[in-house]
Amino acid sequence: MNQAELIEQAKIAMDKAYVPYSKFKVGAALLTADGKVYHGCNIENAAYSMTNCAERTALFKAVSEGVRNFTVLAVVADTDRPVPPCGACRQVIAELCPKDMKVVLTNLKGDIKELTIEELLPGAFTPEDLHD
Ligand SMILES: O=c1ccn([C@H]2C[C@H](O)[C@@H](CO)O2)c(=O)[nH]1
Ligand SMILES: [Zn+2]
């Protein structure tokens, strides 16, 4: 699957967003080395802080199926600039994805920004920091 196709998958995921409070839909599509795609959307809650972002929804779905061989994560929203993942998602991406994995940020106008998670969250706290 190429990048344009993965972005289309993220848009399909975006349509599923449950956003009665913010009305701000976000979609994510996470590609694995064997070509599987995990969709994620943001899922809000009346207890606002329980909201789960699109990026973490996709990652948690995959990890809950024992899948970790991620190669690209695409994220889309109707933003002026390519949608930047929040700090919480950056931390979770840093934990679960390879340092050099491509994160493709985009918007509905077709602007695209490609970054690695190392660039999105330099010097992240990682599992290695827990060891002696
Ligand atoms: O990268 C982002 C940024 C925001 N949101 C969600 C959280 C909330 O539901 C809404 C507004 O912040 O957008 C995401 O899912 N991903
Ligand atoms: Zn987030």
From TrEMBL:
It is an enzyme of class 3 (hydrolase). The active site is at residue 55. Zn(2+) binds at residues 53, 86, 89. Its cofactor is Zn(2+). Substrate binds at residues 42-48. Keywords: Hydrolase, Metal-binding, Zinc. Its EC number is 3.5.4.5. CDD domains: cytidine_deaminase. GO terms for molecular function: cytidine deaminase activity; identical protein binding; zinc ion binding. It catalyses: 2'-deoxycytidine + H2O + H(+) = 2'-deoxyuridine + NH4(+); cytidine + H2O + H(+) = uridine + NH4(+). It holds the Pfam family dCMP_cyt_deam_1. GO terms for cellular component: cytosol. The keyword Thylakoid does not apply. Belongs to the cytidine and deoxycytidylate deaminase family. This enzyme scavenges exogenous and endogenous cytidine and 2'-deoxycytidine for UMP synthesis. This is Cytidine deaminase.
